[in-house]
Sequence to fold (97 residues):
Amino acid sequence: MPDPTQIPVLRCGCGRDAFARRSGTPRNPGRRFLTCSICNLFIWEDLLNKYAEDMVFYFHSASIDCNHHLLENMLHVVEHGLGHLPITEKLVITQQV
Fold:
């Protein structure tokens, strides 16, 4: 399990740690990027961060959507009773209540 007090290290395709560097070009002055000289990895840190934020939002939204469907199904069961469910599902629902 990773140490939550340490900044995670990106491992590139060759299995080595990618190194953080700063651009010194006039076009991207001071812009940080990650690189590996072994497998030629190059990615701007801000783009990687944006991708990670988008993925967190995507999975969070999917989790909310899944919970919404689960709640709708449970509401349907409560509103219409347990009569139409197989006996195993009735046992699970009554034990959870």
